[in-house]
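pasting for the record
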Amino acid sequence: MAILARQLNKEDFGIVAISSVFLSLVSSVGIGGLGDYIIFYKDQHEGEIRQAIFWLNLLVTFLIVIPVFGLAHWWASFYGSPGIEQILYLITITFIFEMLSTVPRSILRRQLDYQAIVTITTIFATTISIGKVAFALTGWGVYSIILPSLIITPIQTAVFYYQAKFTPTLNLCLHRWQEVVKYVKYVAGGQLITKLVNEGDTLIVGKLLGMEKLGVYNLAFGIGNIFKNQVLPIVTEVTLPTFSKIAHDQERLRNAFIKLISVIALISFPTLFILQALAEPFVLFLYGPKWSEAIIPLQILIIFTVSRSIS
């Protein structure tokens, strides 16, 4: 990220941020909980449930993609930045392949095969990061942030299928769709509200202040939420399947949850407060003087991200 920030313009980061938020809001309506249901489901019809979720997930994905593609031009016009349209198209294509990995990834999580998940994710995340730097250094501009993910994500998805030994069939298992939808509809609603709360500031800053200022804000937001965005997803990957196995024992589940929150707080609180105190030298050293405007927003945002790290 530091190398990208030095090579790219502030506006580039703003364009990617506002494009990602639009896709995130639309997708939150339909996809929440599909993978989680594979983890929680405990019955003899696992094969049917997996096939049902694969096809339901595929249908929902394309129902999301169609309006995103249709509204991309309007979204770019609304924010007064034509570059948003093409970036949104590319992000959406990447999103399709990410959604295709929902079932095999959830199977590995259910099997507690974290070694496979971490290995695959780490290798491809590192490859994408190197790709972004390479593209930036060779003059690809804002596309440096998007193209590596677009190229690598389909390969990563194929590897997840191979590792999980999951093969989709032509059996849509439509008789299982109702029970899946019954579970995920509440999760999806909760996700939409959460997204609006968490991403609303990006929408407002982008509209009122423009893409350049949004780029500065987005960098500060990313740094301030580094623990939440980089560490907590790994914690969730590990704890969700583990908690599902002890869900029948409420006392044990409660104690495990409290212990987890305590450990997260013990690590995240001091880290974030130190980052707040050292925000100026941290930003100037890693990202350079052109990002000095991000220092004060970062210090303010950390006040709010402290509580979010355990919420």
